[in-house]
Amino acid sequence: MRKIFALAMLVSVLLIAVGVSFAINYGDPDGDGHPYVGIMVAKDAGGNPLWRCSGTMISPTVYLTAGHCTEAPATQAEIWFESEIVAGLGWPFGGSTSVSGKTETHPSYNPGAFFLYDVGVVILDEPLSLPTYGTLPEQGILDGLATARGQKDTTITAVGYGLQRVRSNPAGPDFTQSDLRREIAVLNLVSVRGTAGIPRGTSVLLSGNAHTGGTCFGDSGGPLFLNSTNTIVAVTSFGINGNCAGVGGGYRIDMPDDLNWINSILANN
């Protein structure tokens, strides 16, 4: 079984400073294209920053992300929705434009096998009014794209605040530094049948390149939209290698147990 890598990113790796971070792997700046996609910093019960991820507002109070972004010891999160995080916004502790909330993770989530139920939410302390939000998919929508023709006619749009590039060297990955910026990449749908020992029905495989972009560390939890819609079919979950090259994976949220859990959160918040 090939090793897979969760794509959350420790805040300590960011050196805490604004302007010393990264963008989606070879993507393009998103600008105001997806203002309901934000960058979160998970915090422990003492308010200490842990790691950062991407995610999507799907209602005025619910921010959808990956389970490994909301898992313990995280209990709360701070979220920004600027297209670029600049000095004066209070990164990574919180500022006048960020919003706060409590983290919740799918009840079947297991950190030892995060890819099986890799979905979580942040429930905001106060509602956030936005012109539009991400929407949930129809149940099993990706299964209808499992044919070769379906995959050929389908693209997945990834949005997130992850690393722009990782260069390999003998001492380990060399992280390229750029701005904390929301970026967009259009990816090819490779498979909806699972990979690397991950059971069928839980993941979607995607392929990017230097021209269209791809996902990397820090993009975890970010939306994977169907074509150019605002329908989220999966959240960015894992990479097949530590250099963010080739195929990457998303956790499908179009399965019954995931939709039921997310909808129960929406109904109660």
Strand content: 25-35%
Structural class: mainly beta
How would you state the average pLDDT, rounded?
Answer: 79
Question: Number of helical segments?
Answer: 3
Domains (count): 2
Q: Order of strands in the sheet with the most strands?
A: 11-15-16-19-18-17
CATH class of the largest domain: Mainly Beta
Coarse morphology: globular
CATH superfamily of the largest domain: Trypsin-like serine proteases
Q: List the quaternary state of the chains.
A: single chain
What sequence of helices (H) and strands (E) makes up the elements? EEEEEEHEEEEHEEEEEEEEEH
- Poorly predicted regions are 1-25, 169-178, 209-214
**Number of DSSP-assigned strands:** 19
CATH second-level architecture of the largest domain: Beta Barrel
The largest sheet is: 6 strands, antiparallel, barrel
Distance between the termini: 40 Å
At the fold tier of CATH, the topology name of the largest domain is: Thrombin, subunit H
Radius of gyration: 17 Å
Helix content: under 10%
Tell me the layout of helices and strands.
Layout: E1 5-6, E2 9-10, E3 28-29, E4 37-43, E5 49-57, E6 62-65, H1 67-70, E7 76-80, E8 84-85, E9 99-105, E10 120-124, H2 148-152, E11 155-160, E12 166-167, E13 174-175, E14 180-181, E15 183-191, E16 203-207, E17 223-226, E18 232-239, E19 247-252, H3 256-268
Antiparallel strand pairs: 1-18, 2-5, 3-15, 4-5, 4-7, 5-6, 6-10, 7-9, 8-14, 9-10, 11-15, 11-17, 12-13, 15-16, 16-19, 17-18, 18-19
